[in-house]
Amino acid sequence: MKKSLTKFLKIALPLALGIFLVYYSYTKFTPQQLDEIAFYFKKADYTFVVLSVVITLLSHIIRSLRWNLLLEPVGYKPKVLNNFMAISVAYLMNMFIPKSGEISRGIVLDKYEKVPFDKGFGTIISERVVDLVFLMAFTALSALFYPSSRFAYDLSLIHI
Fold first, then answer.
1. 119: exposed, middle or buried (Cβ count in 10 Å: 0-12, 13-18, 19+)
2. pLDDT tens digits for 28-74?
3. Domain ranges of the chain
4. Do residues 64 and 80 make contact, with C-beta atoms less than 8 angstroms apart?
């Protein structure tokens, strides 16, 4: 009984708070503002919104598969769906507390897939290091192949 009540409250309280905050902010709009919002929703072209959602979902799925590849040599094979959810939670957490998503990814995987936090977090750190190396490589390639770009121009203004 107590366990099911706790689980219910973990879901119901944040959901109720979210609904309340949306309702509260909605009631603060004037009728003119509500008409303006409705007008813009009707006028909007949702092509790019749908395209953005599709690309984001593909990105999360690819990151989930890549994370599985990193976890296999450590001896774990979590479900891709759980990896996907952990990554989604990480993005959500990063909106509220910057860089907290990486920690939450490890915690979520520990809770749902029994991958020890230190092993999961280690793969996250190695993933970030690889991302940094590729970012630096692409930046260097960009500076080499496009020397007349704004980036190279700004660097040439620095006189030591």
1. middle
2. 888 898 889 889 999 988 999 999 999 999 999 999 999 999 898 88
3. 45-156
4. yes
